Amino acid sequence: MPRNLSAWIDLTIHLLIMLVLIGVLSYYNRYIAAIAGVVWLSLASFARERCADRSKRFDRYCRNVVQNIKEMVNYAVEELPQAVLIVTEDGRIQWTNSRVAQYVGSQPEMDTDIKDIWPGIIITPIWGQEGEYVFAHEDKYYQVRYRPVKMAPHQPQLMSLYVQDVTTHETLRSTYQQSRTVLVYIQIDNYDEVMQGQSEAERTALLLAVNQALDKWMKNLGGFMRRVSDDLYLVVLDREGLDLAISERFDVLDKVRQLQSSNRLPVTLSMGVAVADSQSMAELGAQAQAGLDLALGRGGDQVAVDIGGKTQFFGGRTKAVEKHTRVKARVVAHAIREIMEGADEVFIMGHHNEDFDCFGAAMGMAKMARQLEKPVHIVLSEMNEGIDKFADLLQGKEEYEGIFVRADDLTMMTALNPVLIVVDTHIPHLVADSSLLERIPQVVVIDHHRRSEHFIKNPLLVYIEPAASSTSELVTELLMYFSDDLMLSRLDATALYSGIVVDTKNFAVQTGVRTFDAAAYLRRSGADPVMVRHLFRSDYDTTVALARTKARSELYEGGLIVSCIPEELNNIQVIAAQAADSLLRIENVRMSIVVFRLPNNTVGISARSTGDMNVQVIMEAFGGGGHQNVAGAQVKDGDVEDIKAKVIEISKNYIEENDQDESNTSAGR
Q1: What order do you get walking across the sheet with 418-423 strand by strand?
Q2: Considering the entire predicted model, what is its pTM?
Q3: What is the pLDDT of residues 436-469, one digit of tens each?
Q4: What phi and psi, each to the nearest 5 degrees, are found at residue 626?
Q5: CA gap 348, 633 in Å, rounded
Q6: Which residues face 595 on adjacent strands?
Q7: Which of the four pLDDT bands, split at 50, 70 and 90, describes residue 626?
């Protein structure tokens, strides 16, 4: 191969220089110059011939290289381990290499639809992009790398697909995933209540039945179980066993629930499940314990499964069991007293758009701070039309002067050791002012809603009782033990009483013995039912809107009734809640849901249940939460009709699944 493609140009320059030198030489000696001229002509002729020969050989070399490269490229494309396909946007094959025939059995014809070969392959969602994915076909897995083919603007666009059989790798990966360790904490969440009043023989027989049910379930899953204490079990199994339990939707909860003690209370279980990924065993155990705490905080009788940082819930159909004693309330009351005594200022806030339960609980906590003569402020959100009437009653009362503030009023906080008490919610983005959670490190949470996976970070004290009717009930019990000389004012007692009345629908739902004890304590303290009735009176426009909402309702099979409010109205959340409560009183209705429009392109959902359906589970699908009987959600950037259709679909599936599980359980599955 010639190393210098410009050899003739270089030689021409040299020959021209030599010719100039010969011309100079002829000035001195013509004979010698003539001889030099003959030699120059010989050299020029020889150089011309050699350059022409090199050019011919270089052309021949280039043709050979190009021909060989083309053959090598064609050979490489045909012998690639991947099947290469060029397809159009509608999936029509334009070209393939020979490897495709080895994958599918025969070479596909031009313009064949690729989905006729591999139904699981994806074209439209990835068109014009670069990337890769894996799809399954029959008993094999294929990896697809895709990228667009550069074409002229006026020509139809094409995409190249590089398909490779990765069955061995995917099988190995699946085997690895299915063998990952799963740690489970199982607790009998109502152990004390179930065992109360039973003889030793009855206790032993009941625990034996529970152990047999769990042991049979664990053998089916291929796991290992050990009893840690009277009411706590530790289970180790693999991911394959967990997937089987999930597919059966943890039916062991239903089987154990059939076991009843002599006091007719069913046994319920709560589980915290964590799947090993990259964490240590200590971290895995902490995740399982956190899952158990979450399941218990949501009322028990359910499973919290943590997979890859995402929590799934199963069960949760049974009402939370009311505790017979107030030991925990007394302990929490003393702890709150110590926290307040150590603080130099107390701030209290509830959820956004406060209701009477939230407001009453805040008033009760403020009374505790005032009893200790601590500066106290109740932080209100910008939307709180529901409590306007009560706020008007407090106007001009000296003891409540300056107690209510807005979030904007707290830009310059001077307290060195403040404490923040959050009531009637535990979800960070639902509080009246989320910035206070970051500005005040000491946070106390008091709530009666079932615990959500979204929780205020690092609270100093948590008091959540899903069995309680309302947060006002919890705060009332705390007031009983807070101080022997604490005396509630008439307005404080009425605020707490109104909160209980609202959340129990005038003592009709979610009430227990402790609910009436709290109500009796408030009545003795001066709570005025007449004032409460005045607070709950609605105006004419609200009454008309409520009637229209009920008229729009639609009844579905299974006891579901749904209505909607497509237009924006004043006090619309109150109207939706009242409509949901009213619709629930219709015969054969087990679940009522009202979908309504809120400002800022937001759709609200208010859900109610008679008790045998857990509306909290349905609302969690929309990012909300609440109680088993009372729940709600707000969806940003949604359409009322679209959300309504989705609510109906999810609710129908839940009712069908719930009824099917109950029928299987009653059949002794």
Answers
A1: 404-406, 376-380, 345-349, 418-423, 443-447, 461-464
A2: 0.61
A3: 888 898 999 999 887 777 788 888 888 988 888 8
A4: 140, -135
A5: 23
A6: 564, 605
A7: confident
